[in-house]
Structures are given as C-alpha cells and as structure tokens.
Prior knowledge:
- By secondary structure, the chain is α+β, with helices and mostly antiparallel strands.
- The chain has helices at 12-28, 31-38, 54-62, 81-94, 100-111, 116-126, 227-263, 275-304, 308-339, 351-363, 368-380, and strands at 131-134, 149-152, 155-164, 171-178, 181-188, 194-199, 208-217, 219-222, 265-266, 269-270.
- The chain is built from eleven helices and ten strands.
- The longest helix has 37 residues, at 227-263.
- The protein is globular.
- It starts with 11 loop residues before the first helix and ends with a helix.
Amino acid sequence: MTEQPKNFGFGEDETMLKDSAAKFFADNCSPDKLHGLVAEDPNIHRSIECIWDKQLWQQITELGWTAACVPEEAGGLGMPLVAAVAIAEEAGKAAFPSPLISTMIASFVLKECHSDAATKALGDVASGVPMTLAVTNKQGSWEPGDTDVAAAGTTLNGTAYFVQDAQKCDQFIVSATTPKGVALFLVDANAAGVSITPDGIIDLTRDQAHVEFKNVEAIELAAPGTGEESLASALPAIQTIITADMVGAGEWLLQTTVDYSTTRVQFDRPLGFFQAVKHPLVNVMLEIDRCKSLAYNAACALDVAESQSDRDEAAKFAHMAKANGGEMAAFSSSRAVQFHGGIGFTWECYVHLFFKRQMHNQMLFGDAKYHRAKLADILIGKAA
Length: 384
C-alpha cells in the first residue's frame, strides 16, 4: 500500500481551514443560538419543520467550504478529503443545522461519475448549490443497486427514501434502475413531478424526507451500468465524513460534561472528584481519540490511494472508522446525559441536541454491527 504521511496529510492549509471553521461556529452557532433556533418549541405534537439559517449557508459558501474538495478543473480548490473531514468535525461540534454534510457527500459521488454533467454539477456545488443523495430504498438500504426508482431514458419514476436535508437542498442525486443497470441522475428539487414528504425524526438539526418522482426529467450523471460503481467508490469517503461529524459531536459532549462535573458540587466535592464519574469520562476521551484517528487515517488512505489495492485498503479503514464511530456516539451521548443527572434528559439542557444528532449519525450509512460484518467479509470471507 502507498505509504501515508505521518500527519495524515493534514498540512498548513487544512489547519487554517479547520481553525476558521471553529471560529465561525463559535461566533455564529453557539449552543444558545442553536437551541433557540431549532428547539424553541418542545411540543411533541408540533408540525414537522425544516429550520436553518440560510444566511449562514451563504457565508460558508463565500468562505469556500463547499468548494474545498471540488477539483480545480470544476471550479473548486482541489483540497484532499482530510479537509472535508476537518470541516465535518467542526460542524458536528456545533451540531450545525445546514445541508453542509449532505452537500460534501454529494460532491464525492459526483467526483466518481467522471462525466461532463457531473463536472458541471461539481461547479454548482463549489458555487454553493446545496445537494443531497436520493439513493435509499424503502427498506433503508443504500447499497449500490438497491433503489426504488426506475429510469426510462432520462425520465424517472419511483420514490427515494430517507433523503437527508431534502427540504434544504436544491438538487438531488438519484440512483435509478435501467435495463442496462443502475444509473445516476441529477434532479432539480423544483422540477415538475417531484414531491417531497417530510419524515419525523429525532434529530432537530436535520430534516429527512421521502421524495417521489413522477415522470421527472433528469440529467444523466453516470451512464446505465456505471452508477453502482460510482456509488460504491464514494462510500468510503461518505462513511468517513459522517464519522468526523460524530467525532465533533462527541468532543462537544465530553467537554460540556467535564465542565459540568467540575462545577456541580455534591457531598462537598465536585462531581469530577468521584471515580465513578472521572473514569468513564476518561474512557469517553479515549474512544473519541481512537475514532478521530481512524477517521483521519481513512481519509488520508483515500487521498494517497494510487491503485485498486490502495482503494480497497482505504475502504477497510472507512468501515473501521464508521464502526467505531457508531459505538463512540452511543457511549459519549449516554455518559453525557447520565452525568448531567436530573437535568440531563430535559428539553432545556443542550445535551439532547447533540445526543439526537449522534443517534441519527449512528445509523446513517450503517451502524457498528453493519460495518463490522463488512469487515468480517473482507478479512475472513463471506459466509457460504
């Protein structure tokens, strides 16, 4: 395998990008502002809403975040995957409600399509057009080839389920079956025949929907028979970006819980004095550090991959990262709620926003069991 740089390819430009993202979120998406934006109404019978600040989206577009990993020939900055991972980590740390993660994921699918239409769409991403994937079927499978949408030429019919940030995005990347195999298409969210039905989900920082296509005219991104390969090639990057988001949310949960345990006094001692609190928090820190290392390792492996064997190894690393991320997300969330005691499960405590984001991330593109099963297939072979 191609040797990786010791710093995971995280150079000066990536450091500056991560620092600027951290400052931006600190200034514009503090926990107070976030809670006031997405959690103003605690009524469990409230209508399904899509709440986000479009002005902040315009600002991050101007900062070049959506263009960061878009190839230069498509109008982007041509930065490596580790740059996207750095941004995703900071977005998770702020639980930022926006189509940023979905758009970055879409850009990596477009990069694998290798068509003029995909290059043009990448240019749109660089200019700030929010996009998302519509590739999951009713059973919840996103595996390449598992789609409930069919294409006749460039006309689509069917429904895509579990579409992330569907109400925030202007365009969908849709997988559809054809007589010659799976193809990928670009569809405008406002196109005739497109209907978006919001889903009720626990994550207040995102929206989700199922999207129906009735005789919708689309633009072909990947020709019939090549769509499965394009999606499969992008999955490691997708899994790595989601893992980075979980790392960021885990870091916020840990730091917030540590701060609380040093100020909340019980039996004339700060909570953090007691081993029953202190030791589990150290374990949370270790899990986050392990997950962060796995995420950057997977990203770097993809960035330096030169051969198919390199890409296969990078895919294995991405499975490892997402598997660990799912378990870390659950562990960091449960410890944060428990160690905040009686206020930990309340609506007014900001912990629930990050807890719910972690639970949603945990299931996106596979939980820990799913990815460990994939690793078992790779390492010991599929069961007969």
